[in-house]
Structure formats: C-alpha cells, structure tokens
Amino acid sequence: MITKNINKQPKSIVDVQVTVPWADMEPVWNQVLQKLAADTEISGFRKGTAPVNLVEQQLGSKLQDEVLKTVMPQFLIEGLKGTDVVPIDYPHYQLISFVKGQDLQYKATVTNRPAVTVGNYKTIKAARPAIKAVTGEEVEKVVQDLFKRWQVKGQLSGNSGQVAVGGQTPQAGSLNFQAGAQAAPATLPDDNFAKAMGAKDLSDLKLQVRRDLEGQVKYNNELDYEEGILQEVEKITQVEIPDILISDELNRMLVSLQRRVADMGLLMEDYLKGQGKTLEKIKTEWTPQSEKNVRMELGLAEIARQENVTITDAELQAEIDKIQDAKVKQQFEYQEPRLQLRHSLRQVRTLDLLKKMVGGGL
Predict the structure, then answer these.
(1) Domain boundary among 194, 214, 240
(2) Do residues 223 and 270 both lie within one domain?
C-alpha cells in the first residue's frame, strides 16, 4: 500500500510526497520491460526475442525512466483519492530515491483547484452576431488572388494540395490546383484557370469560392458567439488565481504569437524590434488578459462540476483513436496527456451546454 504526506503551501500549491512499495512497483516494471523488449535489438537475436535479462541490461536507465513516467502519475492519482486536492496543472515530479527491488520515493508539486464561485450562469445573455453576407467584391478579390498565385507558380505540376481561401484551412469541396498541361497564359481569370483550380468553369469557381467564404463567415460567427458567452462567464466568476496558472497562460499566449510571427517569415527578435517592445514588456501588457482567460477557464470548469458534465473512458478513447499521427497518438498512453484531453473535451461539452441554455447554440 502506498503512503503519502500532503503539505499545503500558499497560493494553492501542494507538495505530495509519495512512497510506493516495491511489491506495487514490480508488476509495472515487468510490464514496461516486456513492452520495450519487443522493440529492442540485441546482436545474435532476432528483434524482440532476446532474453529479458539481457534486454534489461542493455536498456539501462531508459527502463527506469519509462517506468517512472508511468508510475509517478498513476500513484499520485491513487494517493490523492479521498482528499480535497484536485490538481489543475501538470505535476512537477522530483525523484527522492529509487533502486530496483526497493521502495520508490518521490515528491509531486501540484496546483490545487482554488475555490471558485460562479454566479447564476443559467441567466447568461449573449447575442449571436449577425452573419455578414458575402459580397461579390469579396468573391472577386479571392479569385484574383488565386489567379495571381497561379500565374506566378504556374499550374503546380504534380501538386494536388488544397488552396486555402481567406487564410483558413480548406474544408471538403475546397479548391485544388490540378496537375496537367500548362494552358496558354491568360491576363484575366478564365475557364482554363478555373479548371486548373478543380472547377468546371469560371462561374463554378466563383460559386465554390462563395461557398468557402460563407463557411468561414459562419465558422467565425460561431467563434464570436462562444467568446461572448465565455466573457459573461468570466464576469460572474470569483476566484483567487494561482500565480502558476497566470504564468502558464502567458506562455501559451507567447507560443501562439511566435507561431504567427514564424508564419509571417520573421524572427521573434526582429518582430519585437519592429514593435519597439521586449518580451517582458509584452508579458506585462498581456497579464490582465491572461488573468481573464484563466478566470474564464476556471469558471467554465466549475459550471461543468455543478452540471455534472463528464467524459467517459469510451468517449476519451474515441477521440484518441481519431489521431492519425502515430507519435502524437503514442503520447496518450500516459496518464497526464489523457487527463488534459479529457479536461478539454469536458470544457467543450460544457460550452455546448451553455449555448443551449442561452438559446443560440447550433
């Protein structure tokens, strides 16, 4: 049986020291060893057929690292059952002592869920923004932009990649550059150009562009509506926000900025010089917004708790099964990414519930 010692610190920080007997560790050790052995190559043996004692010797510290990645979150969760500690961020682990055949001792530092008070969310009012009609000028602008790109690049032989309209990820039915013979140069968009884009003719191309733009308008309208609801949640949420959550949110916002800057083909250093700002100045300016974002997140989570919104194991696994990238999918073999995904799904489901309450959900 594991033992734990919980020490609560200021600002919702909690240190949890956990001791796990080797009897509880041994089955996990053997399970991880068998799993790694199946992919380990040792001279003189076919892959996966070497004796486990030789595999264990070759793996060295890698085996222990993999075991700890599995057991630390697992036994932390077990140790916190029946307590009032509910972690709301990734734990920070510190190994105290562990040798095969002996007890494992480690410390996990977590941020405990702060006390959150949410007002009467069932009376939230949020108006859905009016959907702006797509104009003929907007369609023509996109067509002209595509035409100019087509002229510059030619008819991208062998490339059937989709072309994004308006900077958004294309949906099913969006336009494609089609491989084929290069048509005679044209000075204005014509049927040859339209066919190169995967349309029947120029009129069909414009119709597809309009549909794509209308889809984007509808999508952005829904995002604006959801943002309006979340802002109302933030207004009625009272909580003393732990510093680490503000710091995590600021880092998330900065990562998003770095991606946008990279998409513009700029280095972050050059972007900051152009803006006449430093990274620290941006963090200072963004701190109020990061606090609002965290308050909004915590308020939504508290509504989920009150409404008993849950994500079943089957629903969680169904989302993981949708992941195509094998390396990304492999990350969800561990507890922490699964917990984070379950939380995200729960938040989305709670927002859908609020949309129904407000009366404007799709």
Answers:
(1) 240
(2) no
Q: Are 220 and 332 members of one domain?
A: no
Output the six-digit token pair for 158.
């062998």
The pLDDT value recorded for residue 165 is 53
Q: What is the pTM of this model?
A: 0.65
The radius of gyration of the chain from alpha carbons, rounded to an integer in Å, stands at: 27
Q: Which of 181, 137, 175 is nearest to 155 (CA)?
A: 181
Instruction: Give yes or no: residues 139 and 104 share one domain.
Output: no
Tell me the range of 63-67, 187-191, 315-319, 357-361 where mean pLDDT is highest: 315-319
Note down the domain range covering 182.
114-240
| Residues in a beta bridge with 18 | 4, 106
Same domain? 234 vs 126: yes
